[in-house]
Amino acid sequence: MNSAWRSKIVLTITMVALITIACERTFSFQIPSAAPTAIQATRRPISPSSQQSVITTAQPGVVKTPLITTNEEAILIDLYQRINPSVVNIITYDDQNNLAQPTSQGSGFIFDEYGDIVTNAHVVHGADEVDIVFSDGSIQAGKILGEDFHSDLAVIQVDQAPENTFPVPMGDIAEVAVGQTVVAIGNPFGLGGTLTRGIVSALGRTIPALTSFSIPQAIQTDAPINPGNSGGPLLNLKGELIGVNAQIETGGGSRSNSGIGFAIPVTIVQRVVPALIQDGKFEWGWLGVTGTRVTPALVEAMKLPVTQGAYVSQTISGGPAEQAGLQGTTRAVTLGNRQVEFGGDVITAINGIPINSFDDILIYIALSTTPGQEVILTIIRDGEAQDVSLTLQPRPVENIDLQNP
User: Fold this and answer.
1) CB 107 within 8 A of CB 119
2) 153/128 same-domain check
3) Same structural domain for residues 262 and 317?
4) What is the pLDDT along the chain (405 residues), one digit of tens a residue?
5) Which among 230, 345, 359, 360 is annotated as catalytic?
6) Are 336 and 303 within one domain?
7) Residue tagged active-site, from 152, 345, 359, 360
8) In this structure, what is the dihedral angle of CA atoms 75, 77, 83, 88, given to the nearest 10 degrees?
9) For this structure, is 122 an active site residue?
10) Domain range enclosing 357
11) Total domain count, the chain
C-alpha cells in the first residue's frame, strides 16, 4: 500500500512539472505578438547574425528584444527601423468655402540632405495645402516645388525635416532581378508606417503616365500596395530605393490590391527629381511617332530583311520625325484573317544602339536624350537600310488625366 501511494505521489509531481513547463513554453511563444511595439520604441539596429531571445515576464507585451528565427526577419526589422523615419504621410487639402478640407492622402520619402520629399504627382496635384506627417508624429506644412506629369513624380519642400530622418539611399536598376525580395513602406488607407513584403514579379513594364505618353522600365511587384501607398518607396533588402510605388491592378471595381502593383523605376527618379528641385519641371525629348513592334505578319507583308525593330505607324504633325521625312502606315493588307499595317518605316537602331521593339525607342529617348539633341535613326524603307538625322523637340504640353494610372 505504501509503495502504491509513493508511486501515485511521484506520478502527480511529474505531471505538475510537465504542465508547468508546457505553460511556460506556451507563454513564451505568445510574447512576440507585441514585438513591433518594442521595436518602434527602441529603434535599435539588429544584426542579421545576432542571436535574439524573448524575455519571459509576468506582464504580457513587455519584451526587450523581438523573437527572430531567420536572417530575413532580422534584415526586415533592421530595414524598417532605418528607413521608416524617412517615409512620410502626405495629406492634401482643398479650399472649400474658405475652409481647408482634406481631399486625399499618400506617401513620400526624403530624397536629399535638404529634406526634399518625393511623391507622386497625382497625390499632390491641385492641392491648395499639403501637410507632411513624419513617423515621430510631427506635422509640417509642405510646399510643392515641382511636378512632372509624364513620370507622375513631384517634389515637396518642408522647412526642416526631423533630426532622425535622412535621405533614402538610391539603388541600381541593373541589380534588380525578377524573384528578388522587395519591401514597400507607406500609408495604405492612412495606416502610417506600414511595411509590406513581396518579390519583383516582372521588369521592363510600360505603364500609363498622367498624359498620353508612357512610363518605361516600370517594376512590377506582388508586394501589397493599396490606396495611400502612392509615392512611397519600393526598396531592396539593403534599404535602397529601386522604385516609387504608383499604380495597382485591381482587376475590377475594387480599389484594393490584387497582387499586381507597379513602381516608377529609380532611373527615372534620379533623372527627373533633381530638375524638379532646381527648375520646378523636367523637359523630355520627343521623337513624334507612334508605332508597334515588328511581327512575323509584318515581316511577311513588307518582305522585311529584319525580324526585329520598331514599326512606325504614324508621325505626329509638326514633330521631329515628320520634319525629318519619316513615314508611317500608308495602307493595310489582309493576311489570312489578320489585317496588317503596311508601308511605314522600321527603326532598327538609334545612335548605333540596336532597337528590338518600340519600347526600346521609348526607353532610349526617355533616359538617354534631351530636347534639342540630334539623333541618328537607322531605318528600313522599301527593303533597304538608311540613316536619318533629326533633332528632338520637347514633349508637347497636354491636359493631364489623374484617373489614368
Assistant:
1) yes
2) yes
3) no
4) 444 444 443 444 343 333 332 333 232 323 233 333 333 333 233 233 333 333 333 444 444 666 777 898 999 999 999 999 999 999 999 988 888 888 889 999 999 999 999 999 999 999 999 999 999 999 999 999 999 999 999 999 999 899 889 999 999 999 999 999 999 999 999 998 999 999 999 999 999 999 999 999 999 999 999 999 999 999 999 999 999 999 987 655 555 566 799 999 999 999 999 999 999 999 999 999 999 999 998 999 899 999 999 999 999 999 999 999 999 998 888 877 778 888 999 999 999 999 999 999 999 999 999 999 999 999 999 999 999 999 999 998 876 666 543
5) 230
6) yes
7) 152
8) 140
9) yes
10) 285-394
11) 4
Contacts of 329 (CB under 8 A, 6+ apart): 312, 313, 314, 341, 342, 343, 344
Choose the catalytic residue: 78, 104, 122, 151. Answer: 122
The CATH number of residue 222's host domain is 2.40.10.10
Answer yes or no: 230 catalytic.
yes
Q: Within a domain: residue 75?
A: no
| 265 and 316 share one domain | no
User: CA-CA distance, 107 to 168, in Å (whole number)?
Assistant: 14
- The grid coordinates listed for 370 are 534631351
For position 389, which CATH number holds? 2.30.42.10
